């Protein structure tokens, strides 16, 4: 993608292929200011994350009343300072940045204020560089050691054509970075999974590549491997912390029908197709919402169906917030559709706990500072941190990350209905955004003075407003505009949204209280290294009566004599009861509940040619794993996946773009 794509255009007058900045701008932002404080501290449990700029609720920043600029600036370098100045907000005419820089999908970075006090990386910059060029500041860090003086070996290890930086060996055991309760029995990808024969990339981001994989023991069980890559200037240590934090959050949320399930964090070996590193084993999504919107047939999708999708996404966001987590990068690319058409949030790469004490949901809200998210979906209070926009620092006020999510939801709703993003970025240099702000104020002044009042459910803007007319319903436009209120302090909260009568009335084809049942991967084998470097492969099921051997029974390291004598580790097993006398296994539980990573009882019999490990004894055949979305007696049936046309067949692999409305 080039910067030349990066212009706003009239929606209906431009061919989709020529425009679209939705994908282009739908990137995570990169923080790369010298003042930037990297605030990730990923490998520790939530309680160790320091509070961010722990301000109490402060008035959110006002939009400048004079929003006069020329063309927008196409910049993606953003300050992430923790400026918490309390100086009065000035209304100033802003100068657009100058340099147009194209970025790839993954130019990402979060910048939060949570590490203000304790990050040892506080002065480091984290910049994505698709070419993997090293910088002098890079430090050697293999495994969990960091030696600042030496060059990082990773900079000399590239992945052929793709120039992806490789982690130095040995790859660190993920369990070193995971809290006890989610430590894993098996951390080697190849112990239990194989790549799909097609070996195609089904999606990618700035720091990952997603591939279809299969269970080694039951080939029809497909999953996604999100292979994580180091980003530019990132030390291995930072990589491990960043990825383990994303995993911990994703895993914590993986028990809701509208969240993409993340099962395991594994070590991935180098193969012909992929470089070594870490990866997530995830529920496989069919495609993302962005790919759906790109299809020409999307325009013909009924509004009720679009609203259904919106409500599902909103439920996913509500669930995250209820768990004390803000997603912070909501956009259609981060909503996956399951094979049944259920919308599921994904990509928690810049998500964060938003309470000062993550374990105490009644503790104060932890505000953020800095540029995070993706420009079309990031609210003005976040865009103030974009260094290229040259906003006054007095505008850069700590903001509530939940309001960021609400704004993103509003823009997603507008995008679903209008088939395009409403504007490229919510800053004064974007004419589309300025028009929207003017329209917002006009509507309040002329039509609904109480529009921003809590509990006011009078209809929102109608046909005369460009970004409202396609809703064909003043109540729907109310919800979209209230969520995407440029003013953070009056913006709809998630509570407001769920109390809104129009929102409540949206019929969905998935019930919020649907039992969430997911097909978990079969984990049978674990290979680990003992202190002397031996690789010992063993059968997880025979050694782990519980879900996680680290919790109760550690897998014993066996002597070679013992292995020779009892290769299958079955010898000491207690005398089995007669099969007929055994009670049937308990029904498979969903992923909800107490973090049961591996339910041995769910392990089906090894069925076929792919078996590499002896079957677990005394495990009766289980019924076929239920589909992830039960859909019997549904009052409403939608066919979200049956969207005609095929401008794009794969999700983020697509390079075409959707234009922005102006
Ligand atoms: N479990 C999955 N199943 C199918 N496709 C997936 C899955 N996870 C991710 N993808 C695809 O890969 C894309 C990139 O994934 P993701 O957003 O998690 O990576 P990322 O590096 O965080 O991306 P970015 O930072 O650029 O937003 C998604 O937009 C989606 O299209």
UniProtKB/TrEMBL annotation:
It holds the Pfam family Pkinase. It comes from the Eukaryota. Its EC number is 2.7.11.1. Residues 196-503 form the Protein kinase domain. Residues 56-68, 610-632 have a biased composition (Low complexity). The keyword Nucleotide-binding applies. Residues 109-121 have a biased composition (Polar residues). InterPro entries: Kinase-like_dom_sf, Prot_kinase_dom, Ser/Thr_kinase_AS. One of its GO terms (molecular function) is protein serine/threonine kinase activity. Residues 573-588 have a biased composition (Pro residues). The keyword Kinase applies. Residues 35-124, 569-591, 604-632 are annotated as: Disordered. Keywords: ATP-binding, Kinase, Nucleotide-binding, Serine/threonine-protein kinase, Transferase. This is non-specific serine/threonine protein kinase. It catalyses: L-threonyl-[protein] + ATP = O-phospho-L-threonyl-[protein] + ADP + H(+); L-seryl-[protein] + ATP = O-phospho-L-seryl-[protein] + ADP + H(+). GO terms for biological process: intracellular signal transduction; microtubule cytoskeleton organization. It comes from Saccharomyces mikatae IFO 1815. One of its GO terms (cellular component) is cytoplasm.
């Amino acid at each position: 993608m080039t910067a030349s794509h990066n212009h706003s255009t009239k929606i209906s007058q431009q061919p989709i292929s020529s425009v679209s900045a939705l994908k282009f701008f739908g990137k995570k932002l990169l923080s790369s200011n010298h003042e930037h404080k990297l605030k990730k501290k990923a490998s520790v449990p939530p309680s160790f994350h320091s509070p961010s700029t722990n301000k109490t609720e402060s008035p959110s920043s006002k939009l400048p009343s004079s929003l006069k600029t020329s063309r927008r600036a196409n910049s993606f370098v953003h300050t992430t300072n923790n400026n918490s100045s309390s100086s009065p907000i000035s209304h100033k005419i802003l100068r657009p940045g100058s340099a147009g820089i194209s970025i790839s999908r993954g130019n990402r970075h979060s910048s939060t204020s949570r590490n203000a006090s304790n990050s040892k990386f506080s002065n480091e910059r984290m910049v994505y560089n698709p070419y993997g060029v090293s910088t002098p500041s890079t430090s050697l860090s293999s495994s969990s050691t960091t030696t600042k003086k030496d060059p990082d070996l990773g900079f000399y290890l590239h992945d052929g054509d793709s120039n992806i930086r490789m982690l130095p060996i040995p790859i660190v055991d993920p369990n070193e970075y995971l809290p006890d309760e989610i430590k894993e029995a098996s951390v080697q990808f190849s112990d239990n999974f194989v790549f799909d024969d097609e070996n195609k990339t089904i999606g990618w981001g700035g720091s990952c590549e997603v591939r279809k994989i299969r269970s080694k023991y039951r080939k029809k069980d497909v999953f996604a491997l999100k292979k994580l890559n180091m980003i530019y200037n990132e030390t291995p240590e930072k990589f491990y912390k960043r990825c383990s934090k994303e995993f911990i959050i994703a895993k914590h949320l993986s028990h809701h029908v509208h969240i993409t399930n993340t099962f395991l964090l594994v070590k991935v070996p180098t193969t012909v197709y992929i470089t070594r590193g870490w990866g997530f084993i995830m529920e496989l999504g069919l495609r993302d919402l962005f790919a759906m919107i790109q299809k020409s047939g999307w325009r013909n999708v009924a509004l009720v169906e679009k609203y259904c999708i919106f409500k599902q996404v909103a439920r996913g966001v509500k669930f995250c917030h209820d768990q004390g987590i803000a997603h912070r990068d909501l956009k259609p690319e981060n909503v996956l559709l399951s094979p049944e058409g259920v919308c599921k949030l994904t990509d928690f790469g810049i998500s964060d706990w938003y309470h000062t004490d993550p374990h105490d949901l009644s503790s104060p809200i932890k505000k953020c500072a800095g540029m995070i998210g993706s420009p079309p979906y990031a609210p003005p209070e976040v865009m103030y941190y974009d260094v290229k926009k040259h906003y006054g620092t007095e505008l850069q006020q700590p903001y509530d990350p939940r309001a960021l999510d609400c704004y993103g939801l509003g823009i997603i709703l507008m995008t679903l209905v209008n088939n395009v993003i409403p504007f490229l970025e919510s800053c004064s240099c974007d004419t589309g955004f300025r028009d929207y702000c003017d329209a917002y104020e006009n509507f309040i002044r002329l039509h609904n003075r109480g529009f921003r009042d809590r509990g006011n459910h009078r209809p929102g803007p109608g046909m005369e407003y460009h970004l409202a007319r396609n809703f064909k319903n003043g109540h729907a436009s109310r919800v979209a505009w209230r969520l995407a209120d440029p003013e953070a302090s009056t913006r709809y909260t998630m509570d407001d949204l769920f109390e809104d009568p129009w929102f409540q009335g949206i019929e969905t084809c998935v019930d919020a209280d649907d039992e969430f049942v997911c097909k978990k991967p079969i984990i049978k084998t674990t290979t680990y290294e003992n202190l002397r470097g031996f690789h010992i492969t063993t059968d997880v099921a025979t050694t782990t009566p519980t879900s996680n051997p680290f919790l109760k029974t550690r897998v014993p390291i066996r002597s070679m004599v013992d292995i020779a004598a009892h290769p299958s580790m079955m010898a000491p097993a207690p005398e089995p009861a007669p099969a007929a006398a055994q009670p049937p296994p308990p029904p498979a539980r969903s992923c909800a509940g107490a973090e049961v990573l591996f339910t041995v009882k769910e392990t089906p019999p090894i069925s076929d040619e792919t078996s590499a490990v002896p079957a677990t004894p005394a495990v009766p055949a289980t019924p076929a794993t239920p589909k992830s979305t039960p859909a019997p007696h549904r009052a409403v049936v939608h066919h979200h996946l049956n969207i005609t046309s095929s401008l794009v067949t794969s999700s983020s692999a697509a390079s075409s773009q959707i234009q922005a409305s102006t």
